[in-house]
Design brief:
Elements lengths: L3 H6 L2 H19 L15 H13 L6 H11 L6 H16 L35 E5 L5 H14 L3 E4 L9 H6 L3 H4 L1 E4 L11 E10 L9 E5 L8 H6 L3 E4 L11 H15 L1
Helix pairs in contact: 2-3, 2-5, 3-5, 4-5, 6-10
């Protein structure tokens, strides 16, 4: 964090970016999940610090009247709702910067706090996951979709992501952005379909299979999800010897984005574990 007086001395975009990062760090401190070295440690009460930092934002010439009025109203509450003030200020700054709130470089992802007495309390520890739980992304072409798949896989505890030879490169910048940092931390491997391990169950997410509420998910396995336009290929369906799972739908289109469908599947799989 930075002293409010120094924030006043910064200019334009640099000031807004530093403010956004500061409000993000404050949010994490309020929630008790501050990264080591970013905890609030000024002698000034945190609520007063937040008021002073918010005052810097209120002097921004690009701040709209409506946004300024909303921020002043939040600052007038007693007691101060620190988390709401910081969240509103941060999102307002991201809008001024022309940055989507989901862009990973300005958002600090939450981490579970360590148990009491843990010497690494407040730091990011090794990722937890379900051993043997994996997804095989077959010919996914959209960088946003592959990033979303990595993000869901990481969040729900998959061990790794496997991708087909014709799947888009996860290191593509738009994939990295939508992956929210998960592509860099997840284990993944590019692999032909015929090289999938033979000793664990392989199943597919596709229409015409067992409804998801009735499907018996394996404790370990690989779920194949298909391309945006063609779905799971006939060759992949043949490889899915454990079966096919289907998400029942009622809509006229009866169509889900592949990333959304994978999220629904992972939730049910994790429930079974």
């Amino acid at each position: 964090m930075i002293e409010p007086g120094k924030l006043f001395q910064l200019e334009g975009g640099q000031k807004r970016r530093k403010l956004a990062l500061t409000f993000g760090a404050l949010e994490r401190d309020i929630l008790g999940i501050a990264e080591k070295g970013t905890e609030y440690n000024y002698s000034l009460p945190r609520a007063e610090y937040i008021r002073q930092v918010a005052a810097v934002l209120l002097r921004d010439p690009k701040l709209s009247e409506d946004a300024g009025a909303r921020l002043r109203a939040l600052l007038a509450t007693d007691p101060l709702d620190e988390l709401r003030v910081c969240n509103y200020a941060r999102n307002t700054l991201l809008e001024l910067l022309g940055t989507f709130p989901a862009e990973w470089d300005l958002v600090i992802a939450p981490h579970n706090p360590a148990a009491a007495g843990d010497p690494q309390d407040g730091t990011v520890r090794a990722r937890d996951f379900f051993p043997g739980v994996a997804v095989y992304a077959e010919d996914i072409r959209s960088p946003f979709n592959i990033g979303s798949i990595f993000r869901t896989a990481e969040a729900m505890g998959a061990e790794k992501v496997l991708i087909s030879p014709h799947c888009i490169d996860p290191s593509q910048p738009r994939a990295i952005r939508s992956g929210m940092g998960c592509i860099e931390t997840m284990g993944w491997e590019r692999m032909p379909l015929d090289q999938l391990p033979a000793d664990i169950p392989v199943f597919a997410l596709e229409t015409g299979g067992t409804p998801i509420e009735e499907f018996k998910f394996p404790k370990q396995g690989i779920c194949i999800i298909g391309s945006e336009e063609l779905g799971v290929s006939p060759e992949a369906l043949a490889r899915a010897t454990y079966g096919t799972v289907t998400i029942p739908m009622k809509g006229l289109k009866a169509s889900l984005n592949v990333g959304v469908a994978f999220g629904i599947l992972m939730q049910k799989w994790v429930e079974s574990l």
